[in-house]
Amino acid sequence: MSRRPRTKAPDLGTLKVRGRRALPLYAAVSPYYLLFALFSAAPILFTAFISVTNWSGLGDFQIIGLKNFEYLLTDKLFWKSFGNTLDPVGDVHRAVPHPWPPSSLWPSTAPRVSPTPTGWRICCRT
């Protein structure tokens, strides 16, 4: 049986040198993490905090737990607006004329939509 040579324990001096060499890299990356914490993480955490309080923006607040969400789920206006959000052909799509179907496929009695310098104009054939 042959014995394996013993490995040396790492020299603590080299770890310190490696850490010292990485310092400029940490300094180069740190602005990203600071800006992320300031503009992304902090607002998300603050929004989560506000969602469980009855704070009006001024004065004291009271933690009410999930009552805000209970109110939201029982509100008819919320469900109507939620349905409008999921509607793939919403009011905006109905108001803005689209190039489909092409004019050649429209019946001759259908109103024609044409662009003008001041906006869209609907022209009717007689």
Rg, alpha carbons: 32 Å
> What form results from the Cα inertia axes?
elongated
Strand content: 5-15%
- Write down the secondary-structure element order: HHHHEE
Mean pLDDT over the residues: 75
Biggest beta sheet attributes: 2 strands, antiparallel
Spans of at least 5 consecutive residues with low confidence: none
Strand order of the largest sheet: 1-2
Q: Helical amount among residues, as a percent range?
A: 40-55%
Number of strands: 2
- Structural class based on helices, strands and sheet pairing: mainly alpha
- Distance between the ends: 106 Å
Count of helical segments?
A: 4
Describe the structure.
The chain is mainly alpha-helical. Helix content is 51%, strand content 8%. It has helices spanning 12-51, 67-74, 76-86, 91-95; strands at residues 112-116, 119-123. A two-stranded antiparallel sheet has the order 1-2. Strand 1 (112-116) and strand 2 (119-123) form a beta hairpin. The longest helix is centred in the first third of the chain and has 40 residues, at 12-51.
